[in-house]
C-alpha cells in the first residue's frame, strides 16, 4: 500500500514539474511575441551620420535620431550593419523595417522603396590632397575620381564624367575613398558635403563644392507600402518642433559646416 502511494506521489510531482515548465515556456514565448523590435539597417562607414566608436558601438547623427524615433513609437531599436549597396535589397526582402544611412531620397530609389520626409540637406563635394592642383570641374579631365557604390554620388559622377572627361572608380565605403586618395590611386573623391568636410578637417585635405547639383535631401527608407512612413513622418515633425533634431545637428554636424 505504501509502495502504491509512493508511486502516485511520484507521478503527481513529475506531472506538476512538467506543467510548470510548460507554463514558463509559454510565458517566455508570449513575452518575446509582445516585445516590439524595430529593425534598422545602416552602413556604418559614413561619419558623422553613422560609424562605430572605439568599442565598436554605433554612433552618429542618424543613430541618435533613430533611437529617438524608436523611443517615440515604443520600439526597441535593433541595428544591422551592411554594405550601402545592399540596403535597398534588404528592405525589398523584408529583412529590415527601415534604413537610415545618409540616403538621399532620389526619384530612382523611390521606384523601389518609400521615403520619409527629408530630415537633412547637404550637397556634394570633391575632395583631394592639399598638394593637388585640382580646384574646379574643368581640372578633372583625364583624372580618376573615387565614389561609393550605390550612392547618389555614384550616379552624379557617372553623369559628370561624360561632360568633364574623368574616370569613375567605385569602392565599397566612404573611408576607402580617402584611403585611395592618400595612396594616390585616385585623384579626388566625390562625396556628401558634410562627410567630406569632416575628412578635410581630420586629415588636412582640401576640396570644392559641386556647383552642378542640388541634393534631394536625406530620408528614412522603408519597404514599398509600409505603414510606418506616416508614423515616422509624424515623429519627425514632432522632433523638429521640439528642437531635438536641431540639437542633434549641433552635436554632430556643427563642426562640419
Provide a descriptive summary of the structure in words.
Residues 1-19 form the signal peptide. This is ABC transporter substrate-binding protein. The chain is of the alpha/beta class. The protein has helices spanning 2-34, 61-73, 87-92, 152-164, 174-182, 193-203, 228-241, 244-252; strands at residues 37-42, 51-52, 58-59, 76-81, 98-99, 113-115, 124-128, 144-148, 167-171, 188-192, 206-209, 221-223. The protein has a 5-stranded mixed β-sheet with strand order 9-8-10-7-11, sandwiched between helices. A 3-stranded parallel β-sheet has the order 4-1-5. Strands 2-3 form a two-stranded antiparallel sheet. Helix 4 links the parallel strand 8 and strand 9. Helix 2 (61-73) crosses helix 7.
List strands and helices in order, with pairings.
Elements: H1 2-34, E1 37-42, E2 51-52, E3 58-59, H2 61-73, E4 76-81, H3 87-92, E5 98-99, E6 113-115, E7 124-128, E8 144-148, H4 152-164, E9 167-171, H5 174-182, E10 188-192, H6 193-203, E11 206-209, E12 221-223, H7 228-241, H8 244-252
Parallel strand pairs: 1-4, 1-5, 8-9, 8-10
Antiparallel strand pairs: 2-3, 6-12, 7-10, 7-11
Helix pairs in contact: 2-7
Model regions low in confidence, pLDDT < 50 over at least 5 residues: 1-32
Q: Hey, roughly how much beta strand do the residues contain?
A: 15-25%
| Count of individual helical segments | 8
- Estimated helix fraction: 40-55%
The main β sheet shows up as: 5 strands, mixed
Strand order of the largest sheet: 9-8-10-7-11
Overall pLDDT metric: 88
Task: Tell the overall outline.
Answer: globular
Helix-and-strand structural type: alpha/beta
Beta-strand segment tally: 12
Q: Report the span from N to C terminus.
A: 89 Å
